[in-house]
Amino acid sequence: MTKEVEHSFVKLLEENQNIIHKVCRIYTNNYNAHNDLFQEITIQLWKAYPKFRGDAKFSTWMYRVGLNTAITLYRKSKKAIRTQEIDSIQFKLSAQEYDDTEEEQLKLMYQAIHQLNDIEKALVFLYLEDKNYKEISDTMGISEVNARVKMNRVKTKLKKILNP
Q1: Which residue from 61, 117, 135, 149 could staple onto 131, CB 3.0 to 4.6 Å apart?
Q2: pLDDT at 82
Q3: What mean pLDDT is predicted for residues 123-146?
């Protein structure tokens, strides 16, 4: 790769790195796993960057590569020994930003999301990122109608998990 392409990639990665952190938060439950997944997604983005045609926004392409990498590793890790959970909210967010009620609700929501399968997690993640169904369908490679149907099913599932 040329220096110009390398510089372009690094700039776009720096501008959009929070996307990777958010994907990592959904698919990991401890600091080391988060860092490992962040590194793996970055590597996959770097390898795939020469094929990025610009048909979609960089962030949409980044979501797709990031989610696919996370899902692949998540499926592999289900065969591995489970790691011990840590309070993933507090290590990233200051307690001053949230009152106890909101923090508890976030913890419950993340616990519920961790019970979803990998595809459902991706849907919820994109939905919580305020992506419209067109962007969700583009990112996940499914139809808009399918994205809506799956999201409605996931919402119902989350309600059942949160309100047994």
Answers
A1: 135
A2: 53
A3: 90
